[in-house]
Amino acid sequence: LQQQPPHPQPQHQHQHQHQHQHQPPFQQHDQHHDQLQQPPLGPPPPPPTAQPQGPQTQGETPQKANRLRKACDSCSIRKVKCDESGPPCRACAALDIPCTFERPSRRRGPPNRHAEAIKRRRLEESPHNISGQSTPSSPTHAAQALAALSSHPSHPPISAESICDIQTLDLLVNDFFTYIHPLCPFPHEPSFREAWKRREDYSNRAFLALLSSMVAALVASFPRKPRLHLKAQRRELEFPNHMTLVLKCQKVCAEARGPGYLDSENLSVHDAATSYFLGLSACYTFRWRQCRLYWSECLTIIRALGLHKPTEQNFTRLGMLPAAMGSNGPNVEGNRDDVLDNITLEMGRRIFWTMFVSSKTIHQCGSAFSELVVPPETPSMPYPPLPVEVDDFCIFPGHIEPQPPGLVPMIAGFNANVRIFMSYSPLSTMELAWGVDALVDIDRQKKVLHDSLERCKSAIRDLPPVLVIWPTDNNPFANHSGNELGLDFSNTSYARDPATLNPNTVDATPEDRRRRQYEIQKANIHGSGLCTRSYIVEKYFTLIEAQARSKLQAENADSGLSSEVAAELDGLLSDGASADALDREMSEERESIVKDLLSVLSSIDRVNMEPNADSLTTKIRVVASTLLEVPKSRKGQVAQQAEEYLAAFLDILVKLERVNPGHDDPHNPNDEETELRHWADLREYQLKFAQQGGLSSL
């Protein structure tokens, strides 16, 4: 047997070390790994069979033992054996999931301190290299720069699977259109579902960003539903807390959008929807700076696209700007008369009015977001019309079909909520002109407040029956298992209604799904009505107290109002009652607010309050705390009797406002368990209030 002499090996090792000194760090790491796999130096052991073996040349490398291929991502996560028949492997093929190898592998053993020291030394020396001690033209540094660029692995393409598995995403998309879409009626549901069925998240980054933001808004608004899905699929360890899923969605959305998305030529209404949902998820997770940024961005996109204007002004005229500035010509963006399709037009209006309602709600709750001010409309700058009151399956790009008879569209409840906040537009105009709670003309200011209150109550009175809060013993829509809504979903007009295509949801029938959506809208509408009425009434009594403190005479107060402004205000007002009659009416209105608040708290179920999230609980908490803080001299009999009930409800609502998760461990589920206990306390007190007689006991 011929054995290889031991003398060439030290020479080969010395040459290997010499090359090792001039190679980049990532190649050094690979060679260290190869050296760990090579046998020790010295003569090899004799083979089991006596076969002649020729001398090994220096260029040849000893053959290594065949190693098994790295397991795919799915098998690696589940810690099961992955066969080598693929890709795809048999397990991924059976589950019909992508067989990917994107999961980074961890190096075993202790850290390589020598390589880490070299990397640390290079990082410390990098500022000196930039300052000019070494030039990029040096061959050594050029090779190192190329090696550093090649050492960075290319980012794998992101898709919907970057959030979670497709089965869970299907459930979350269904939940979004069931629980969140009645409150934020965008995007267009049939179009979105068709794109999702085609899996446009692979090719359309804007669609993936929209999908991620929708899931983030759902989880932040209604965390219990996604948590139930994850537990049913035994994936709660992957997302132990709803905040982890929200942050994952926001990260995927940011990667899908990429830098410079506002400079894109394809900026559309869906980008505005994405920004709104990101702001909504930030609002419900108490990250106010991100909320301001994204909502301001949403409003800016809507204005840049011209969707905040009426139909005849859907573009910006640049007027008499000189031609050198590009104001004239057929290709100027500000002057083009592009005809928008109906889906884009309706979605833009819905987003604008949603931002309008959001800004008014924030202002009513005591916050001042100056970035979100939607100024009152003027004759030269009117608001866009309200969205057409038809469901999404009636809207096509080229035409809009009429709503099927007997079916109340979801947009009817959305528009009713908008009219509640538009009821005090003259009050907003007055405060914008002269300041908040400023004494200018006490009589006219009282009439402005009175007319605003009447318009708000009128918007609530005009609600369709399915959106009215009925007494428990007089509810025509309660305790019916049949089709009490009068819907015939066998009609061909419902062919595009996704409610008829999702029988596997919690709501077994399209009627159940629509009834649940009505209840969610009902909670939001009546919460907005209570908050707006209380806001106007408190403005009225604050004005009276300011007048008493200042001890101004009527003629002195009138001196601050010009005749032109007074005439403009008079055109917005109706012939109201006297001052004493207004005072009595406002006092009675406060008593009515107490009764209506207790009615809302005792009749709306938890599952219908939860999708409204902190928006509803904050509105009701503001109303309840305002009523409790009223001096006893101004409290009526009903308010005094209901003080105990209001205090108990207020205590529960304060607890329901989730603790700021930004300073907590996202993997700690204790906050969610506490929240469930608070919801149980609310339900228990609702039953207790009903057993003690409810409103009839007051």
From TrEMBL:
Q: Which residues form the Zn(2)-C6 fungal-type domain?
A: 71-101
Q: MF terms per GO, please?
A: DNA binding; DNA-binding transcription factor activity, RNA polymerase II-specific; zinc ion binding
- One Pfam entry for this protein is Zn_clus
Where would you find this protein in the cell?
Nucleus
Q: List the biased-composition ranges (Basic and acidic residues).
A: 113-127
- Cross-referenced SUPFAM superfamilies, in alphabetical order? Zn2/Cys6 DNA-binding domain
The UniProt entry, under PROSITE patterns, shows:
ZN2_CY6_FUNGAL_1 (PS00463), ZN2_CY6_FUNGAL_2 (PS50048)
UniProtKB keywords: DNA-binding, Metal-binding, Nucleus
Q: Would the keyword Heme be found if you checked this record's keyword annotation? A: no
Annotated Gene Ontology cellular components are:
nucleus
- Comp. bias (Pro residues): 40-50
Record flagged with keyword Nucleus: yes
- Region Disordered, residue ranges: 1-65, 101-154
**What domain of life is recorded for the organism?**
Eukaryota
Q: Where is the composition biased (Low complexity)?
A: 137-154
Any single biological process term in GO: DNA-templated transcription
Q: Which PANTHER family match?
A: HALOTOLERANCE PROTEIN 9-RELATED, TRANSCRIPTION FACTOR PDR1
What protein does this entry describe? Answer: Zn(2)-C6 fungal-type domain-containing protein
Q: Which organism is it from?
A: Aureobasidium namibiae CBS 147.97
